[in-house]
Amino acid sequence: MPAFKDMPLSVLNLSPVNEGETPGDSFAKSLELTQHAEKLGYNRLWVAEHHNMEGIASSATSVLLSYLAGGTSSIRLGSGGIMLPNHAPLAIAEQFGTLESLYPGRIDLGLGRAPGTDQTTAAALRRHVNSGDDFPARLEELQRYFQDPANMAIPPQVKAVPGAGLDIPIWLLGSSGFSAQLAGQLGLPYAFAGHFAAENMKAALQLYLDSFQPSVVLDEPYAMTGINVIAGETDEEADYLGTTMKQQFLSLIRNRPGKIQPPVEDMDALWTSQEKAMMARWDAGTIQGGPESVRQQLEDFSSSVPVHEIMISGSVYDQAKRLRSYELIKEVQKQSTAATASI
């Protein structure tokens, strides 16, 4: 596994909608972030499918990806992820076939099996809500649509146009062992949702590595994890900026998700002692601080977690501070001298 200084870094963008702003404002900021990440040398940027959440605007994921790809030229873009049970596999094959045709060699298709929303909204999306147990079958159907019909013994009656014959990397995403094991067995790249399920991270990643079987896609396993990172000019600034993300998770704990809130000086004025204790699960997947602190934490993380790539999420209310955070992370990576990890 690479050390932090050699680790590909990527960006997870949830298209956050700030209090007092609109989804249109969020999209403009998302494009600015994508262009900034491209300029800084980040490897890829993914957007995630969520529904019925005022603070997240990336529900029409493939449409947003086309907008971001049209405003950039080289950074890889993808879904982190498309919640496959919400969609007909043929529709996803056509959407991502269109993206790959428009922006060849730049599109990733990350897939999850959760609904990305509450059960009532899931019913509105799917009409029939299931447990996700049919995810492997849906995945197999989707993979068939990307096969080249000329190489198939029996030509398919239904073709994905565009989509058929295109080389679009499929990633499996997850926060538990199910997708980790499936990705390993199928020889696909795997991305773990460490930004909100850090307690399962090492076990799921190890399960993926242990389950991996070489395939036409990969000869060796390739694992990525998401983590929350907020870098400030000082530890104190980062702690202040980080209260926006704490408020975001607090709203989820209370089952009252809303728009992204500005940072506050004192979180103790907002949460109860019980809620503060509940946040410890989320805090385990968060790195924040000034440049030197972030560098040390990321070096320690990279040497202890079996991943080939890190995808960084970080909800910062002020756009300039958000962009600066990603800039500081790349700066400290260039300064890192940590030896190659031996995991």
UniProtKB/TrEMBL annotation:
Domain of life per record: Bacteria
Protein name (database record): Luciferase family oxidoreductase, group 1
NCBIfam families tied to this protein: oxido_grp_1 (TIGR03558)
InterPro entries xrefs: Bact_Lucif_Oxidored (IPR050766), CmoO-like (IPR019949), Luciferase-like_dom (IPR011251), Luciferase-like_sf (IPR036661)
Domain Luciferase-like stretches: 19-303
Transmembrane segments: none
Stored Gene3D superfamilies: Luciferase-like domain
Pfam families, sorted: Bac_luciferase
MF term (GO), any: oxidoreductase activity, acting on paired donors, with incorporation or reduction of molecular oxygen
Organism whose genome encodes this protein: Marinococcus luteus
Family from the record: To bacterial alkanal monooxygenase alpha and beta chains.
Gene Ontology CC annotation, any one: cytosol
